[in-house]
Amino acid sequence: MGKFKTEQEQFWAGGFGDNYIERNVGKNLIASNIAFFAKVLKNTTKIKTVLEFGSNIGLNIIALETLLPNAGMAAIEINRNAVKELKKNCKKIQVYPMSIFDFEPDKKRDFCGEMMDKFNNLKIVDYGFVYHRDTNFPNDDITWFLLEKV
Ligand SMILES: C[S@@+](CC[C@H](N)C(=O)[O-])C[C@H]1O[C@@H](n2cnc3c(N)ncnc32)[C@H](O)[C@@H]1O
């Protein structure tokens, strides 16, 4: 974690971020986070992975590990001292010690597959890609799927 481009990043990577770590401790906070996320997650099912943007020392992740013991946890965090504590607090977590502005997800999502897994009456009819430098009909880069309800 070297120099950062924006004031926002320098602020959290530096002294303010270091001091913030100490503000953020305690079992009461974890209890509150568990209560909070239990409400947030009540209508969800089968969550497999969680990625927190700006996790600090992991107080949300600790709560989420309690509620979702089988889900894989990951976090992006810019402050190196927060990262050290995060790794101690959450042993199994995948940590990206960097700015969220530089983060590139290494897991590709398969939206079509997710839809077909969720609704077993969907059949894939066609799929394709539109390229922004297409000679005749340029557009945004678009990946598309055509699904039919059967
Ligand atoms: C207000 S704290 C919230 C911490 C945690 N999410 C929680 O609820 O306890 C914001 C966190 O985001 C991190 N952060 C801020 N800007 C970031 C950036 N550009 N990239 C990665 N992390 C960042 C900070 O270091 C800090 O840990």
Structural overview:
This protein is α/β, with parallel strands linked by helices and 150 residues long. The protein folds into two domains: 90 residues, Vaccinia Virus protein VP39 (Rossmann fold), CATH 3.40.50; 39 residues, no CATH class. 38% of the residues lie in helices and 20% in strands. It is built from six helices and five strands, in the order αααβαβαβαββ. The strands form two sheets. A three-stranded parallel β-sheet has the order 1-2-3, with helices on one face. A two-stranded antiparallel ribbon has the order 4-5. Strand 1, helix 4 and strand 2 form a beta-alpha-beta unit. Helix 3 packs across helix 4. It is flat. The chain starts with 6 loop residues before the first helix and ends with a strand. The mean pLDDT is 93. It binds S-adenosylmethionine. S-adenosylmethionine binds next to helix 1 and helix 4.
How many helices does DSSP assign?
6
Main sheet attributes: strand count, strand direction, barrel closure:
3 strands, parallel
How many domains? The number is 2
* Spatial sequence of strands, sheet with the most strands: 1-2-3
Calculate the mean pLDDT score and round it. 93
Distance between the termini: 51 Å
Helix amount? 25-40%
CATH-scheme architecture of the largest domain: 3-Layer(aba) Sandwich
> Could you say which structural class the secondary elements and strand pairing correspond to?
alpha/beta
Number of strands: 5
Query: Looking at CATH, which topology of the largest domain would you report?
Result: Rossmann fold
Strand/helix succession: HHHEHEHEHEE
Are any ligands bound, and if so which?
S-adenosylmethionine
State the CATH superfamily name of the largest domain. Vaccinia Virus protein VP39
Rg value: 20 Å
**Stretches with pLDDT under 50, minimum 5 residues:** none
Morphology = flat
CATH classification, class level of the largest domain: Alpha Beta
Portion of residues in beta strands equals 15-25%
